[in-house]
Amino acid sequence: MYRVGVDLGGTNISVGVIDENLNIIGRGKLKTNLPRSFDEIFSDIVKAVHMAVEDAGISMNDVLSIGAGTPGAVDLESGVVEFSSNLNFYNAPFKSELEKAFGKPAFVTNDANCAALAEKMLGTGKGVKDFIAITLGTGIGGGIFINDKMLTGVNGAAGETGHMVIQTEGIKCGCGRKGCWEKYASATAIVQQTKDALLKDNYKKSYIWNLIDNDISKVNGRTAFDAMRNCDELGTRIVEKYIYYLACGITNLINVFQPQAFCIGGGMSNEGDALLLPVVEMVEKERYSIHSSKQTKICIAELKNDAGVIGAALLNEI
Amino acid sequence: MYRVGVDLGGTNISVGVIDENLNIIGRGKLKTNLPRSFDEIFSDIVKAVHMAVEDAGISMNDVLSIGAGTPGAVDLESGVVEFSSNLNFYNAPFKSELEKAFGKPAFVTNDANCAALAEKMLGTGKGVKDFIAITLGTGIGGGIFINDKMLTGVNGAAGETGHMVIQTEGIKCGCGRKGCWEKYASATAIVQQTKDALLKDNYKKSYIWNLIDNDISKVNGRTAFDAMRNCDELGTRIVEKYIYYLACGITNLINVFQPQAFCIGGGMSNEGDALLLPVVEMVEKERYSIHSSKQTKICIAELKNDAGVIGAALLNEI
């Protein structure tokens, strides 16, 4: 039997069919095309599922279940997306619509939880009972596992580590708070930090200008790291400050959870050791458990882009 | 059968014998008298246990188990206190020494976890699967329960919510970090905030000076609240800022955990609704799950001073 996973994002609807070995054997993809209503988006989700099933060369009869990850907070029992600020969903009956459309058991949860679930079952979290996985992307998402179970909280909205304030009265966040971690340590944050540094310091000589063809709109999450690798002083400074903020939030979470493993995923994790090693060094200096014989292992996610789809397909197991 | 609970603090060694109805039927108390070595303190713990057993009118043969709560991080399997900065313990073999001294099963964990366990089993956490209890005292301690189990982490040091940074580059904390929550929202913090405000603003007319007989060393955790209740402007301002910091950390934890209930204990919780209601109001405005149909219930701890002793006695149940 096969399972279908839907990864609904702000840009794409990505669908995968996975086999019993958890390999993706068929794919479907359509644009989310925001802003659209839930009904409009849902009809494209149905199309993308059929595309993936056809691509896999199977029929819907061979499909056991359908899981979906979506930005926002999902009531796990009802499968209703109670709200998603990114998609502008309020009380969208995602699970019941999936069950109606396909006549299969359906499961819906938060997208960051899906990616974390895949990492837990197939990546760095394999065999790790207490596990935290964060994704550094547009924001900071997170999935938390305690005793092998996903932490969902009373309302399915647990794991919003990105909305932990690390700077009271800091940068305003879309969630309404000020100083949320994701405003300092997401991929979006380092892009902004790079732009701010270039403009504020009016640092004409920085190698960053070469990297971006003197066009500040070309700054991305890699720019400062690339500049640092070219021994650029400004790039190094931006990266150091970014790492400081990243390590601050990770240390907060380790002081609270002391998990066996803490995994960093999402776009920024492609920096690998250039990101990981200085983060580990800072956390090791600061964590409360500095004298403990057992410590949290901090690592980079093994699963890359498919984590969301695979995790969604695995939702029937939790 | 009876159980013995030991609450080891920086000031007192408090021991209680509890019966099957979880009532304390005998007590023993000695001074901790810091600084002393673990061996010296331990011999007084043994004495205090015998005092409590005698006070209960039972014999050691009637005692099923002995549990102890201590500041610091405890390896739960070995029962070794790996470190306690307050008591200056390093690798103190607390559990094995208790077992040797009394020939009973012994259990050792962090003191804030003990208080939280008592609140979980007998107070506001009864029947609540996902539960967080914090204590606002010298620092901020915490105990976290997920699916009815205490979150201990890989090394027994989980739950250190007080050492979550809410202000990068903020006030220096004894743990080595800067800007820890407990530097802003513990009882110690509001004492400092009150003193700072009195000195900085040179606010000669504040009613606070009456409350403290013009002696700044008499400021305590209640002072600003008492002044506020007397419509004092400075007192009101201090309390509002304190509540802001307290709500900030609580919102952080709710955004990450979304527990069913969140309980505030420790000295500051004696302020009751004067503390609780404005905290709830701020958290309700800021939490990420603002549109969810189910929300964390925030409340004041029911158990007061005996929580540590009772929780320690209950450690054999977890």
How would you describe this protein?
The structure is a homodimer. Chain A is of the alpha/beta class and about 325 residues long. Chain A folds into two domains: about 1-120 and about 305-315, Nucleotidyltransferase, domain 5 (2-Layer Sandwich), CATH 3.30.420; about 125-300, ATPase, nucleotide binding domain (Nucleotidyltransferase, domain 5, 2-Layer Sandwich), CATH 3.30.420.40. Helices cover about 35% and strands about 20% of the residues of chain A. The first copy, chain A, has ten helices and 13 strands. Chain A has a five-stranded mixed β-sheet with strand order 3-2-1-4-8. In chain A, helix 5 (about 185-200) packs antiparallel against helix 8 (about 235-255), helix 7 crosses helix 8 (about 235-255) and helix 8 crosses helix 9 (about 275-285). Chain A is globular and about 60 Å long. The mean pLDDT of chain A is about 95. Chains A and B meet through strand 10 and helix 8 of A and strand 10 and helix 8 of B.
Key features?
homodimer, 318 residues, alpha/beta, Nucleotidyltransferase, domain 5, 2 domains, 5-stranded mixed β-sheet, 10 helices, 36% helix, globular
